[in-house]
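Async update (no meeting this week)

Hi team, since we skipped the sync, here's where things stand on the single-chain job. The sequence we agreed to prioritize is pasted below, unchanged from the tracker. I ran it this morning and attached the output directly underneath so nobody has to dig for it. Comments welcome in thread, and please keep replies under the output.
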Amino acid sequence: MYNKVILVGNLTRDIELRYSQNGSAIAKTAIATSRKFTVNGEKKEETCFVDITFFGRSGEVANQYLRKGSKILVEGRLSFEQWVDQTNGQKRSKHSVIVETMQMLDSRGEGGSQGGYNEYSDAGNSGYDAPAPKAAYTPPPSYSKPAPVRMPENNLPEIDINEDEIPF
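Output:
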C-alpha cells in the first residue's frame, strides 16, 4: 500500500513544541489549503484545514523558523487518530498528516528570490531570513540531545504554484 500526502498552504497557528520523555521533539500545528473552481459559471473556493505533526529535528526547525501564516509545502503520510472524549465519553476521531519533509515557501527576504523554495536540511538554514526566534526552550536536566535527523532526498514532483490562487 502507498500512503503519501503533499500539501501546500499556510500555517493556521503557531507551532506547539513539546518533548517526549526520551527527548525527541514533537511539534504540532495545522495547515490551510484551498482550491478555486467554477460550478455553473459561478466561481467558488473551498478551504481545507489539516492538522500536521513534525517529529525530531524537523519539529525543532519548524518551530524556529515558521509562524502562523507561513507558507509551506509538506510531504508526509496520512494518519488516523482515535480517542475517547473525556467530557462525555464519546468516541472521537480525525485524520492528520505526519510530516516527513518540508519546504518553506516564504520569500527569503529582500535580497533573496521571491517565492523561492527553502527545503529543510541539517546543513543550515540556507540563508533563510527567519522571523525573530521564540523564547529559547530549556530542556530538563536529564535531556540528552538526540542525534541529528537526516531528511530524505528531495524526490517531490515539481509543482507549479500560482501565488495569486493562495488566499492567505
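Quick observations from my side:
Strands lie at 5-11, 16-19, 25-39, 42-55, 71-84, 91-104, 118-119.
The chain has one helix and seven strands.
Reply here if anything looks off.
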